[in-house]
Design brief:
The chain contains 20 helices and 12 strands. The chain has about 475 residues and is α+β, with helices and mostly antiparallel strands.
């Protein structure tokens, strides 16, 4: 047991034992509870255990950190002492040596290349391409709305974010591939998640049903990337995008299998990280808006005030403050990447807690984002908490939907821009209502997806409303702007 290890190994460990909560479960009991309800279990551990919870998992000593200052230490102040943990190994068959799993100099080279592609001036230039992809989705939705058909908003968001990513970073469209890619990612991520929380998993080469299904899913993903590369190599100078920069950065013979595999890993890492997480965040946002009509009304009022019926431009984004707050609050309740783990390279100390070399640190965004010390009414959906003056006093590392520190999400600005275009453009045309009778609950894979989707009906947007609520919302927005200018 971790408790015995920490209380008997040395006198220096006794002080740490007094502040580390050790849950009273055997390793098998712990894994069973994790697999049954990961989110609820870790949320309870966070509330019961306070700042630090210690446990053993798969033979490893793990510290679950719940205090913002401790999280800051690991992700920023002493980030060089921590690397992606061993619990990410099940992702290697999907992402290989791409930026998500890479370490050291290889990660730094990939990071620098990616930053040029998805941040700064290049990001602004992508806005027109993004809005074109969104407009195509909305035109398709017109038919669904007329037919009064319910749609699962999760794959819809997956489709549009994948379309945006392919157009902006790879200058291509794969209309017929979007559904198979979504399904393949679902299978592969589910397979990886099961292996992370398993006491023992069958080796990949064993032809079990799960392994065979995962192989088929990986083949779909590999085929998609192969077609992207084949198309680009046929016209290498036609486009100037992320893929072109990636190929220029490593000018080797593409027929070399190891080189082609490296490019495959990088492309697939960008596809996964660049559309899966944003799509989930948007799906949860539509769910929350449907459950909170007052928030939706205020959001519509801001969009009408700032944009009218015009498509948003990069210059409009900063004025959509409440829209951004809605998206931020959605990611607080349903962070796209719900947990982060790191392994200690050398012995470390967080306050008076010793973190031995080789041990793992777990940071559960789902639990920290619901910690009452940082978030009053933590289960409530209240976007205004991101606009109030008190927000400036909240510790920065109490909120990290895109991680923090040197290894924060490369595409965080890309994702935020997507959201700030998709939310207004959809609401200018449609109202999304939950279909009664379909339970909605989170499924914690590597990302936090809605289990069994979110079924919604599309209705024309309620233009020209004169309700007291909408007028009040508009007045409040104008008042906030005048106060901000003053």
């Amino acid at each position: 047991m971790l408790h015995e290890l920490m209380t008997s190994s040395s006198k220096s460990h006794s002080a740490a034992a007094s502040v580390v909560y050790t849950p009273p479960y055997s390793a098998v009991q712990f894994v069973r509870r994790v697999r049954r309800d990961p989110l609820g279990f870790f949320l309870r551990l966070s509330r019961d255990g306070g700042d630090v919870v210690g446990f053993r998992l798969a033979g490893s000593q793990v510290f679950m950190l719940n205090k913002a200052e401790h999280i800051k230490h690991v992700l920023q102040d002493n980030a060089s002492n921590y690397r992606k943990s061993k619990f990410y190994k099940p992702l290697y068959p999907i992402l290989g040596k791409g930026i998500f799993t890479a370490e050291g100099d290889a990660w730094l080279r990939q990071r620098r290349l990616g930053v040029k592609a998805v941040q700064g001036p290049n990001l602004k230039r992508m806005t027109g391409t993004m809005t074109a992809a969104i407009s195509d989705m909305l035109e398709r939705w017109n038919g669904l709305s007329s037919a009064k058909r319910a749609v699962d908003i999760v794959p819809e968001m997956m489709r549009v974010t994948l379309d945006i990513l392919l157009r902006t970073l790879f200058s291509t469209k794969l209309e017929s591939d979007r559904d198979p890619v979504y399904e393949a990612l679902t299978v592969a991520l589910s397979h990886a998640e099961r292996r992370i929380w398993s006491v023992a998993s069958p080796p990949d080469w064993l032809p079990t049903a799960g392994n065979l299904s995962n192989r088929r899913a990986l083949a779909v993903l590999d085929s998609m990337v192969d077609r992207i590369l084949t198309s680009r190599l046929a016209e290498p100078d036609r486009h100037d995008d992320f893929l072109s920069a990636l190929l220029r950065a490593q000018p080797q013979d593409i027929s070399d299998d190891s080189y082609r595999r490296l490019i495959r890993d990088e492309v697939l890492s960008m596809i996964l990280a660049g559309h899966e997480t944003t799509a989930n965040a948007l799906a949860w946002t539509w769910f929350l808006l449907s459950k909170h009509p007052t928030v939706e009304c205020q959001l519509r009022a801001e969009i009408a005030t700032v944009l009218g019926q015009a498509a948003p431009t990069p210059d409009d984004v900063s004025a959509l403050r409440y829209t951004r707050a809605v998206f931020d609050e959605s990611m607080r309740l349903y962070p796209p990447v719900w947990t982060i783990s790191r392994d200690a390279v050398a012995d470390d100390r967080v306050d008076d807690i010793e973190i031995p070399r080789g041990s793992s640190v777990m940071i559960c965004a789902y639990a920290v984002h619901r910690r009452e010390a940082y978030w009053p009414n933590p289960e409530g959906f209240d976007p205004s908490r991101f606009l109030e003056p008190e927000a400036e006093d909240r510790p920065r590392f109490a909120y990290f939907p895109f991680s923090m520190g040197p290894r924060n999400c490369l595409g965080r600005h890309f994702a935020a821009l997507e959201a700030m275009l998709i939310l207004p453009m959809v609401l200018q045309r449609f109202r999304l209502d939950l279909v009664p009778g379909y339970p909605v609950e989170p499924e914690p894979m590597i990302t936090l997806r809605p289990r069994d989707g979110i079924h919604m009906r599309l209705h024309p947007a309620p233009h020209g409303e004169s309700s007291a609520l909408q007028q009040s919302a508009s007045s409040r927005i104008h008042h906030d702007r005048r106060r901000a200018v003053a």
